[in-house]
Amino acid sequence: MAKTSRLPGFHKVSVQQRRTLVADVTGTEMAELEASLEGGGLEAEVADKFVENVLGTYALPFGVALNVRINSKDYVVPMVVEEPSVVAAASNAARMIRGSGGFLAEVDPPLMVSQVQLTNVRDPRAAEERILARREEILALADRAVPGLVVRGGGARDLEVRSIGAPEDEMLVVHIVVDCQDAMGANLVNGVAEAVGAHLAELAHGHVGLRILSNLCDKRKVRLRCSVAAEDLATEDMDGQRVIDGIVNASRFAELDPYRAATHNKGIMNGIDAVVIATGNDWRAVEAGAHAYAARSGRYAPLAIWRRDGERLVGTLEMPMAIGTVGGTLRVHRAARLALLLLGVPSAGELASVCAAAGLASNLAAVRALATDGIQRGHMALHARSVAIAAGAKGTAVERVAAMIVEARDITVEAAKRAIEVLRGSDVPLPSEESAGGAD
Ligand code: MEV
Questions:
Q1: What's the topology of domain 377-424?
Q2: DSSP state, residue 183
Q3: Model pLDDT for residues 172-203, shown as the tens digit of each residue
Q4: To test the ligand 1 pocket, which listed residue (259, 264, 268) has its Cβ within 8 A of the most ligand atoms?
Q5: Molecular function (GO) terms listed (predicted)?
Q6: What pLDDT is recorded for position 433?
Q7: Residues with catalytic roles
Q8: Segments in the chain below pLDDT 50
């Protein structure tokens, strides 16, 4: 939690000044912040202990989304992402949502499912009965595989038996439901599956097949709701009521068409993945869970929808979120540890709500842009900044050069180089810095 996540003018100050501001509002030691970001937070020697065949490391921008308020708490939200405008869009949309009190979040307990596949089960129904009758014994066996987790208050909670396929498939699947506390839980849950597999096969009079977690962790969901006043959605050219109609129309499009739903959800994952990566979590797992959940009805659907409520816009998002605040990458990656520090070292559930808020804010920004000016204007303005930097612009000249090439509708390194020359050599009146798009 931060003192405040509302920092007007943040995008206009230098990287150093931003660090000072963030250290102050989050209560992080400046020395710790700087050391954690050194070299992207990971040295090649450490990376070498982490994965195989290492040659070096690969850096990405580490930014923060502002204005995020969830369940009455403020968060400065770390985001690691290469795509221009994602951080700005999330911050801008979070500011609109903040105007109506922020996000309301509800998070399920951290329950993951360990799957054990049983094959050659001649009589699946009788096998199911035998397994269910030994429920307590199986859960105790599962707990013995994860003693540390049990000490921390987690462990096996439930057992489910599912018969899948046709009778001739002779297949049963047993789910052990495990409370993973603040861990994402993949290793714990895989360990449980391996520990109970042989015993389950014996009880089923069958063979043990695969033993692995399921990434469709629909017992570990996050639900988010927000509302936005029409006047906060208005643009220069469109009043807020028309913007609400446009956003509801965008939502309906995604609800009716899987082709659009995939892109709508990509916009949500822009925000979510950036926080998941910043906090050292497994974004492929979160992605797999999100898309499997989106397709649960048999038809791929949007994870977030938007409706009108009187004069206001209301958004809701529901999706699985397998995410942790202990273990894994966090042991070795200093920038990931810093990300958690900036968030006030949240529980896994609290972090799930922060990820979801970044996702819903990103989605609102995207559908608002699509329902009004179109996405290219904002994207181009921010892309122009990277082009200006690539052409050699530094400091405040970046914004000026970006604004000039946007105005000239020629966003190329050559045009940016010409703009730098113009700035250097003359007293030509400079275009407004605002047109390059702000992130706060
Ligand atoms: C681009 O990264 C994401 C969008 O395509 C999302 C959307 O269309 O809703 C803008």
A1: Helicase, Ruva Protein; domain 3 (1.10.8)
A2: B
A3: 999 999 999 999 999 999 999 999 999 999 99
A4: 264
A5: hydroxymethylglutaryl-CoA reductase (NADH) activity
A6: 35
A7: 83, 266, 282, 379
A8: 428-437
